Amino acid sequence: MMSLQRILAVIRKELIQLRRDRLTFGMIIGIPAAQLLLFGYAINMDPRNLDAAVADLSSTTASRALVMDLAHSQVVNLRYQAGSAAELEELLRSGKISVGLFIPDDFERRLLQPERAAAQLLIDGSDTVVQGAAAKLAQPARTSPYTDAPPRLELRTFYNPERRSPVNTVPGLIGIILTMTMVLFTAVAIVRERERGNLELLIATPVQTLELMLAKIVPYVAIGLVQVTLVLVLGVLLFQVPIRGSLLDVYLLTLVFIIANLALGLAISTIASNQFQAMQLTFFILLPSILLSGFMFPFAGMPKAAQWIAEILPMTHFMRLIRGVVLRGANLSELTGELAVLGVFILVAMTLAVRRFTKRLD
Amino acid sequence: MTAALNTAAQPGVEPAADAMAGLAIEARGMSKTFGKVQAVRDLDLDVPRGRIYGFLGPNGSGKSTTIRMLCGLLTPTAGDISVLGYRIPEQAEALRRRVGYMTQKFSLYEDLTALENLQFMANIHSLRRSARHRRIEAVGERYHLEGFLRQRAGTLSGGQKQRLALAAATLHEPDLLFLDEPTSAVDPENRRAFWETLFDLVAEGTTILVSTHYMDEAERCHALAILDQGRLVAQGSPLELTGAIDARVAVVESSQPRRVRKALEGHAFVLSSAQIGHTLRVLVHKDSEDPERLIRDAIAAAGLPADSCALSRPNLEDVFVASTRTRTPS
Fold it and tell me: Which residues of B touch A6 (CB under 8 A)?
């Protein structure tokens, strides 16, 4: 028979320990806040302020107009004036600039011959994001700035405000933060007791495995919900993330995701033999969660094998759920398939944890 | 039950003798192997109810492993074990409600206060509200915890931690108490007080199984098992064990005890010798006739002085040395 008294005793004990562990307690608030600010401001898929240099050998009104257009695009930040193409290449190779604009001395004549490139854009191809952005910059240089629409306008259309990153990043960030904190909290939960010697005493008492597992999860469910709230509030206030679906749906799907992560953490905790191993295993989960879930790169563009791996991760399904509800305003009832996958995941992870945990030392 | 364990006949036994309605622990052929290491080999144990039963042995002799098997924390490799009538390991879960276990290393939560630890353990043992208050108050008084109930367990002294651990292990009034080297981090004065409380528990009918490597503690047990390299080498009350010793003990006084010791060690009739101040305590083979004469002759032959040589009553340490020694050559 499961005993509520025993479950509550362990929950209470966990909460007291958590309250006294100042650093961990601080991290409950600190990690989400720091991550949100970092990722929200720093992860910007639309590159801005790429360092650039110009070698204007033509030095005419038309060439200066082109340089001004480039400078006003906000994509590049003109830092150097170069005297030759070789000098540009040197700057590029040394990493001082990512983009170089070379305007030959016959620039004006070339402009009159639309089939010839009027100027050359040198791009640092080692960063694919820079490459992509800078390649688009090259387009106005090939068309004539005089005959067609002004290049400045053309440039701006690529980076219109509707493509702001935080809107896409913040909902996914909830998943990353929860994966990080929730899995880690429970991954160390049982290992820590073992390392400190508490487990030997605990397993010599009538406490049951399932009671112990449930009691280890419950306090962190509450903590996870606090973190979600924090990220949502900051996301709306700082980054104007729109929540188009119902808030109740957001919390419901997040709750399921939190439990999935906690169950995963518990399973890790019964496999790892010390806290260091538990942390390593957590990062083993965290990294693919960030890279393969669709948080960083589009899921559709990944090779099949990577997609299969991603399908095993709770984070992938959470991404689809949260983006659906928050950004597309979808209803949870339209996304039951993803929820069901998370449900199965919880069942498997909990079963694994309960079966792997024995009330024995051998 | 072997005759050696019939402690009822022993003088100085407390009135709880009538509570001895049989055996608390009965084990036959108990063994435990870790990989290639045989930690416990073919152990037979009979622990009577309402007694303090001691495990005496050096580190690595299998004391902790045996205790862990008996409370169901380790699965025996072989053996029939019955603890309080429960078959172990199959019925270990039912047994847990009726035993208390004090681990060798302090294993309560160091970041909880003493009181919080007691409340936690009381709840884990499903004590009802009123019983919880009554028991926490009772153990607080008995083990003198009042002064540090609101202090974090991690900041307590060795003696305080030990009292708290014993209090936590006895909260649910277990019938059987396992204590794994409970006094290793405690000063002599606290050890004395600790043993007094153990006898209080026994008087209330609790059976206590305690492991130790201190001879003075072993002397206080009702019955003892001497373990060496995972084997049971002797079992019985301290009196029986010293009476049945497989050797004779002589005390030699000499001005040059160290050289005398060296001279004696080569002789076949000498089992072992130990220097105690100016004297030597010599264990002599049981079958040797007139050991005093043998020793005197051996010392004289080495050209060394001997002021006196007399037979002495064996103590538990002699038993320990004699019984663990016989194993070594095999």
Answer: 123-124, 126
Q: What's the whole-number mean pLDDT along residues A242-255?
A: 90
A164 touches chain B (CB under 8 A): no
ipTM: 0.82
**Which regions of chain A carry the CATH code 3.40.1710.10?**
50-162
d(CA B212, CA A209): 32
Tokens of A241: 């993330």
If pLDDT is split at 50, 70 and 90, which confidence band does A140 have? low
DSSP state of B275: E
CATH at B118? 3.40.50.300
A206 → closest Cβ in B34, B119, B125:
B125
Is residue A23 within 8 A of residue A222, CB to CB? The reply is no
CB contact under 8 A, B74 and A362: yes
pLDDT in tens, B259-301: 888 888 888 888 888 888 888 999 988 888 888 888 888 888 8
Q: How big is the A-B interface in CB pairs under 8 Å?
A: 77
| pTM given for the model | 0.80
The type of residue at B226 is: I
Are the CB atoms for A230 and A174 separated by under 8 Å? no
* Domain shared by B257 and B130, yes or no: no
**How far apart (Å, rounded) are the C-alpha atoms in residues B296 and B309?**
7
Strand partners, B101: B178
CA-based nearest distance A270→chain B, Å: 17
Q: Tell me, yes or no, if A9 comes closer than 8 A to chain B by beta carbon.
A: yes
Whether B182 and B295 share a structural domain:
no
B29 with B133, same domain: the answer is yes
If asked whether residues B53 and B167 sit together in one domain, one would say yes
Q: How far apart are CA A125 and CA A135, in angstroms?
A: 10
| Topology, domain A50-162 | abc type-2 transporter like fold (3.40.1710)
